[in-house]
Each structure stands twice: as structure tokens, then as C-alpha cells.
């Protein structure tokens, strides 16, 4: 197969594929039905023309029959007047008209026969058209039902392009939603741990503990003032509470020293404190 033949074959194949996809069976059925109705209309028109032609011949025949009757009367009258020549002419015309009538009767009979045949064909064609119409409507209903079922099946299976786009959109929405939910949970967890409060205040844990200690001392001082104004005896400090406070302060100072001061400075301060205690004991 040459290049041109192969190219022509491919082109015809593509065109046939396009036509097959573009062809709508329901439109083809409707077109065939309209063609059959056009043919029926043409048959009816032919019958009408034949009927018209036959009627014209019948009218012509009646006129000839009237002429025959007239020529017959003319011949009788001519005989009564002893005019045989006129009677002969009248009889000759009568005979000519009768011959024409016979020809017309033959033509009328042929037209009638043709008309009867066309009427039979028209009835048969009309019956076929009615039968085709029933089948056409049935086939159209089956095709439309099959087409709708195919569309539904494609939609359910996600084969169609639109359903594929919808599936991708749903997947993207689910992914974004899960991401936002995870972010919201993380934010809630950070809020519960107080990370946002620390970031906003700018204080570290030592500052907050020192602030809590100052607040406690201010409250204790204000409480002593109220007791003095009311004449109440000052409350004796609880040993355990003082011990706990001192331990807390010591721990806080140790933590401050540990976190902020280098090891060499800590050792030097400890030696100075030990030296002061030894001098005081002397």
C-alpha cells in the first residue's frame, strides 16, 4: 500500500469515526419517517392527479354522448324532410362521436385501474408508515433510556471528565480541611500550654516566679497593716511556710545563678561567701 493510499485510508477512517460519533440514531429515525411520509404524500398527489384526469375524460365523454343524441335527432329530422344527405352527415358525425366515446371509455377504464392500484399501494404504504412510527418511537425510547443509563453509570464510576474534576476538587477540599483542622488543634495545644502568653509578655519563667514572690510579699504586708489597724495580733509565721518560701527563693536564686552566670563566677562567689562566714565565726 502506497503512501497516498494509506493516507486516504486513514482519512476515511477518521471521517467515519467522527460521523459515527456525531450520528444520532433518533434523528436518523425521524428523518426516515419524514421521508416515508413525503413518499406517501407523493402517492396521494398522484392519485389526485389521476382522479382529476379521469373526471375530465368523463366530462368529455358526457359531452360526446350529448352530441351523439343531437346527431341522432338531426338524422331523424332530415329523414322526415327527405334530406337523406343531411341525415347521412348527421349519422356519420354520430358514428365518429361514438368511436371517440369508446376510446374515452377505454382510457377511463385504464385510469380507474391505475387509480385502484395506487390506492392499494397508498393504503399499504400508510400501514407501513404507521408500523414504522410505532417502532421508531419504541427505538427512540430505548435509545434515550440507554443513553441516560450510560451517563449515570459514567457519573457513578467517575469516568466522565466532569466527574473527574469534581473528584479532584473534593480531594483538594478534604486535604485543605484536614490541614486546617490539624493547625487549629496545634494552636489550641499551644494556647493551653501558655506559649502564647509567654511570647506576648516577653518574660521568662524566672521573671514570672519573682513576680509571684513580690506579689505574695505585698499581700502579706497589706494583711499585717490591716491587722494592726483592727488591733489584731500578728499571725505567727508558720515554720513550714517560711521554710518552703526560703527553699523556693534559694532554688530560684540557684536557678538564676545557674542559668545566667558562668561556672567560674559561681565558684568565686561561693568562696567569698564561705570566707565571710568563717570571718564572722571568728
TrEMBL record:
Compositionally biased residues, Basic and acidic residues: 173-182, 205-230
Start and end residues of each stretch annotated as Disordered: 173-282
InterPro entries: PspA_VIPP1
Biased composition regions of type Acidic residues, renumbered to the chain: 237-282
Domain of life: Archaea
Gene3D superfamilies, sorted: 1.10.287.1490
Pfam families referenced in this protein's UniProt entry, alphabetically: PspA_IM30 (PF04012)
Homology family: Belongs to the PspA/Vipp/IM30 family.
Name of this protein: PspA/IM30 family protein
Organism from which the protein derives: Halobaculum lipolyticum
